[in-house]
Amino acid sequence: MASQFIPRAAFPTASFLIVAAMAASFSTHVFAAPVELTPGENGWSYELTKGYLYECPLHEAMTARAHRGDENEKAYIRCQTFYSYGQSAELSSSDENSTDPNGQWSEQLDEGKEDGHDYTCKNGEVMTGMERSGDENGHTKYRCSVVKINGEIKKMHPATQRKEKESAHLFACPTGQALIRRAHLCTGSGSACDENQDTIYQCGYIRAVD
Question: Which residue has the higher pLDDT, 17 or 109?
Answer without folding.
Answer: 109
